[in-house]
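To fix ideas at the outset, we first show an illustrative case, written as a sequence plus integers encoding its fold:
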Amino acid sequence: MRLIDENGDNVGVVGIEEARAMADEAGLDLVEIAPQADPPVCKILDYGKYKYEAQKRANEARKKQKIIEVKEIKMRPNIDQHDYDTKLRSIEKFIGEGDKVKVTLRFRGREIAHQNLAHALLNKVKDQVEEIAKVEQFPKMEGRQMIMILAPR
């Protein structure tokens, strides 16, 4: 097996008994680092410390990852301009934070007969946030509501 000593220096190819003797002499453990290599690579180190540092690295990686949430914005087909602008600012803020946005248009009563207005409204939203977001799911009907999902670029 190929052996790396406690200082990180490459000792070379040695037998398993000789490697165990060197590890015992140093008061450390013999750990197989790359079993699939030819010949296998082993290292002399403190196994408890090695596991502890690996766990710390995993925890740091978990802290740094961003969890993508899906935020929902609800509108109506006959939304007023000021309300639309407010909803659009919220969409831009959520996309800027790296979250996905689910834009929902709810139909009440006879509004469901005018789905063309809803398509026009969702296309208007899509066109206005085109630089910062891409459409992940194009507008489609689900019951009495039309849904579109936007994701950050």
In short: The first strand starts at residue 2 and ends at 4. Residues 47-64 form the longest helix (18 residues). The CA atoms of residues 110 and 127 lie 27 Å apart.
